[in-house]
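Two quick folds needed for the group meeting slides. Do the first one here.
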Amino acid sequence: MSKPAIGFIGVGLMGHGMARNMLEKGHALTVICHRNREPVDDLVRRGATEAISPRDLATRSEIVFTCLNSSPDVEDVILRDDGVLAGARPGTVVADASTSDPASTLRLARILSERGVVMCDTALGNSPVEAEAGTLNAFVGADPETFARLEPVIATWAANIVHVGGVGDGHRVKLVNNFVGMAYVALFAEAFTACRAIGLDPQKLHDVVRPGGLYCGMFERISRWVIQRDPKAHLMRVNNSLKDLGYYNRMVEDAGMTSLLGHAAQHLFAMAKSNGMGELPMPRLVELVAAMNGVPQDRDILREDKDNRRQGEPGSRHRRAADRPRKS
C-alpha cells in the first residue's frame, strides 16, 4: 500500500522534526510557511513541496497535521477562506498536534464533520530533541478507525503512542500532563531558590534528589539550567506555558472542579510574563523567584552571602523592595 500524503502546518521547534521524520520514511510531504522560513526551506531542500495556502496544502494531502501555538491559530488555518477546510476532500484527516483548548477542538470537529472531514488530536509529549530523533510521545484522541489509519504515520516520529479516547481527549490529557510539568517547574524554582537563601549549593539538592523517588525528567532539566546554565535545558517558553495553564484551569473549572495549584502556577507564570520573561524558556522562572526574594544567583555571591550571615551581617538577599519584580 502507498503511504498517505501528508500536509504539515507549523514546522517550528516541534513540527520540523516530526515533518522531517515522515518525509524521510517515505511520505510525500507538503509544508507551508506559518512564521519562520528556515525550517520550511530545510524541508523543501530535503524533498518536501511548499504550498501557497492552507487550502492548497489540503488539496495535496490525505492527512493534515497542525502544530501551532494556540487554538485561535488552529482555527484560523482551518476555517479562513483559503484554509484547510476549503481544500479538504471527504475522508481527509486533520490531526492537531498543538496544545489546544479541547472545547475548540470539539467545535472544529463538528464543523469539519459536516463536510466529511475527520478531526482528531495527536498531542505531544517531550521536547524538540525527541521530535528530531523521532522518539516523541503521542496522546491520540480519535475514533478507533481513524486511530488505526494514523498509528503507522505517527510511528514515524513517536516512540510511544497512547490512544486515550475520542476526539478532544488527547488535548485533555495533554493539558493535565502540562499542568503537572509546569507545577513542577514552579516547585523546583522555589526549591532551588530556598537552597541559595539558606546558603546551600544547588548541586547538593541535585545530589540528594537524583538517586531518590522524587527524581524526574523535569527536575533534571531545571537542574541543567540552575547548575550548568544550559540554555537548551528546556526550550518551552513562559508564554506558551502560561497559555497551557489557562486552558487547563478553564477545562477543569468547566467540569466543576476548583483548581488550586493550577491557579498558583498560572499566577507565577503570569508574573514572569509581566516582568518581561514571556519569550524566555520556562526554567528561567528560577530567576524570577530568586529576584522576588533578593537571593543571588551567582555562586561566588552565594558564598560571600553565606559568609556574611555566619558573621551576623545581613546578606545581599535582603534586597530593597524597589529592586524586586512587580507582581502581576
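Then this one, please, same format:
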Amino acid sequence: MKKNFNYQLSVIGYRCCLLLIVYCSLFTACFAQQAPSPDEKIPFLCTFSKASEKDWGDDDFVQIFFFVVPQTEKNPIYIRVFDPDIGGKYDEAHDGFNSKTKFTVYGGKGAISNPDARKQTPTGNYKSGIQLASKTFGSEPDYDDKWYTFGPFNPVEGELQQEFGGYIFKLIIEGTEGNDGNLYRLFLSSLPNENKPIEGGNAFAFEYSLRLADAKGSISHLYPFVGSKDITAVVINVFDFDDDGILRVVSVSKKGEITKSSGNGVWLENKHKIVPDEINTSLDVQFVKQQDSKNNNIVVYITNQYGELMPFYTTPIGGVPKYKFKIGVKVEN
C-alpha cells in the first residue's frame, strides 16, 4: 500500500508541476513585449539629454531597444511609448524642463545585423536600416502620463533574423536638447490604442539605461541568457550605482554571488564564472538597494569572456532562474 500511495502522490505532484509550468508560460508570454517587464521590477527606462552631467546616470544619452515579431505574424504591429514627453509627472528636471527626446523606429536590412547597431557605445552607423517613423517630444502636456503609438507597421518591414526569432524592429531614443531625464516605458502591441501582446514576440537590449526604485530593500532584475556552451564567464558592467546597494547574481547553480556596487559617475566591472548547469538558462542579475534614495539612474551592459555583448530579454527565457538545491531522499520499502 505504501508504494502505491507514494506513486499516486508522485503522479499528483507531476500534474501540479505541469499545470504550473503552463500557467507560468502563459503569464510570461503576456508580458514578453513590455519594457520594463513586471519580472524586472524596474520603474522606468531612462534617457537624459545631451547637455546633462554623466553622473546623473546616463553615460551616452542614447538608448537602443529591439523588438522581435515572429514570422507567423500577419497583422500590423505597433510600438507604444508611455510618457514620451520630458516634463510633468515622472521625468527628472534640472533647473526646469528645457529638453527634447527623439524616438525613431527602424526596420529593413541592417537594422540589427549591422555591427554598429549592437555596440555598447552608439558610434558609427548605429542608425542602420530603414527609418520607418520618428517623433521628437518636448514638455507637451498632451503626452504626459499617456501612451503614444508608432505604427502601424507590416511585420515584414522589420529585418528577418533567425538568430533572434523573427523580424526585428529597432527603436532608438536620443536626448537631443537640454539637460533633463526622460523616464518612459515601451510596449510591442497588436493594437494601436491598447497594450495587447503579440504571441511569440519579445523585446531585448544590449545596454540598459534604467531608473531604480527609491525604497531600501527594493530589488531590480536583469536576465541575460547563457545560450552557448562556449560561455565560461560573464562580465557585468554597471555605471553610476552611487554605492546605493549590492549586485547579486542568482542562477540554477548560485544562491547569490554578491559583489560591490559602482560609485558615482564611474563604471565597475563584475566577473562571474559560468558552470555547465547554467548553460541554456537565464541568470538573475539583481540590484539590491540598501538605503532609501531617489533618482538613482544606472546603465548596465553584459559581455561574455570574449567581450561580446549579450542581449538581455525583458522577460527571462526559460523563466526566472531558481537555485536548485539537492535534498537526500530515503525510500522506504
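Slide caption for protein two: Residues 1-31, 327-333 have pLDDT under 50 and may be disordered.
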